[in-house]
């Protein structure tokens, strides 16, 4: 699968750098698969900003904690873990899980697909 970005002013397609993907909303995110885990390293409004952060992470040998390690969007309730995100002022649940690892995996899938299950596809590094 090739990754391309459409640039309106030149009306040409350009290949995106490795580990950088463009969301439907135009923002750029950094993702890297390590083993069988897809890591999400952040999203940025411009390609230049994403490239700058990617260079920083590579310089640190990817040892900087990616945002997926935090428990953001995961709430513990009654010994269960709920993946939740506030969208347009309303809390939307993306599932309830028995353990934290399953909840984190589901949250990472949601982050990679911009919280839209219709965008889930196979990822390549």
Fold and architecture overview:
The chain has 125 residues and is α+β, with helices and mostly antiparallel strands. The protein has two domains: 56 residues, GCC-box Binding Domain (2-Layer Sandwich); 50 residues, GCC-box Binding Domain (2-Layer Sandwich). The chain contains two helices and eight strands, in the order E-E-E-E-E-H-E-E-E-H. Strand 3 and strand 4 form a beta hairpin. The model has no long low-confidence stretch (mean pLDDT 77).
Gist?
The protein contains 2 helices and 8 strands. It has helices spanning 47-59, 100-112, and strands spanning 4-7, 12-15, 20-22, 28-34, 37-44, 74-77, 80-87, 90-97.
Describe this protein with a few key phrases.
125 residues, alpha+beta, GCC-box Binding Domain, 2 domains, 3-stranded antiparallel beta sheet, 2 helices, 21% helix, globular
């Amino acid at each position: 699968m090739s990754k391309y970005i459409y640039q309106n002013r030149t009306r040409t397609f350009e290949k995106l750098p490795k580990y950088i993907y463009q969301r439907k909303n135009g923002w750029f995110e950094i993702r890297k698969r390590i083993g069988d885990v897809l890591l999400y390293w952040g999203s940025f409004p411009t390609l230049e900003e994403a490239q700058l952060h990617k260079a920083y992470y590579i310089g640190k040998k990817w040892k900087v904690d990616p945002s997926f390690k935090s428990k953001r969007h995961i709430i513990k309730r009654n010994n269960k873990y709920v993946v939740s995100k506030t969208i347009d002022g309303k809390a939307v649940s993306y599932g309830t899980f028995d353990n934290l690892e399953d909840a984190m995996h589901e949250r990472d899938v949601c982050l990679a697909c911009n919280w839209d299950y219709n965008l889930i596809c196979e990822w390549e590094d």
